[in-house]
């Protein structure tokens, strides 16, 4: 049985349909396999949903609140494990950045996943470069937009 660590770029597909949404929905809804996210992802998802409504004007205020409620319902209904960022994660995130440039949030997401220390962990991200870095650091990866590649 695998465990999944889903970063925000992939998790967001659950709440705003786009390429890869079906794969993320299957992962989240399969309660036989642990799913992990960071507490940072909560804020990133809510911020991105708010941007769609307030800045991009592609959703309504009502849709924003429905998507937000759906997100919080998922966390409890599907027992998504929300991981707080620790000082050990921050130390590792800095080390990841020193090895190669990474966006700060990406380095934190990857550090939390690596510090889980699970052999069967699959790092799920829609960011090709982040997946490449995760693979180089020993994680199995899945890009829901291109599950075969």
Summarize the helices and strands and which ones pair or pack:
Elements: E1 3-6, H1 8-11, H2 21-29, E2 35-38, H3 39-54, H4 61-77, E3 81-83, H5 87-99, H6 104-116, E4 121-124, H7 128-136, E5 140-142
Parallel strand pairs: 1-2, 1-4, 2-3, 4-5
Helix pairs in contact: 3-4, 5-6
Structural summary, described in words:
The protein is of the alpha/beta class. It has a domain at 3-40 and 80-142: 5'-nuclease (Rossmann fold, 3-Layer(aba) Sandwich), CATH 3.40.50.1010. It is 54% helix and 12% strand. Strands 3-2-1-4-5 form a 5-stranded parallel beta sheet. Helix 3 runs antiparallel to helix 4 (61-77) and helix 5 packs across helix 6 (104-116). The protein is globular and about 40 Å long. The two termini are 21 Å apart. The model has no long low-confidence stretch (mean pLDDT 95).
Which features does this protein show?
alpha/beta, Rossmann fold, 149 residues, five-stranded parallel sheet
Counting DSSP H or I runs of 4 or more residues, the number of helices is 7
* Helix/strand class: alpha/beta
CATH class of the domain at 3-40 and 80-142: Alpha Beta
> Which oligomeric state applies?
single chain
Give a count of the beta strands, DSSP E runs of length 2 or more. Answer: 5
Describe the largest sheet: 5 strands, parallel
End-to-end separation: 21 Å
Relevant CATH superfamily of the domain at 3-40 and 80-142: 5'-nuclease
List the helices and strands in order: EHHEHHEHHEHE
Q: What is the overall silhouette?
A: globular
Beta-strand portion reads 5-15%
Low-confidence runs (pLDDT<50, min 5 residues)?
A: none
Instruction: Give the rounded overall mean pLDDT.
Output: 95
Q: Give the strand line-up of the largest sheet.
A: 3-2-1-4-5
- What Rg do the Cα atoms give? 15 Å
The name CATH uses for the topology of the domain at 3-40 and 80-142 is Rossmann fold
User: Per CATH, which architecture of the domain at 3-40 and 80-142?
Assistant: 3-Layer(aba) Sandwich
Helix content: 40-55%
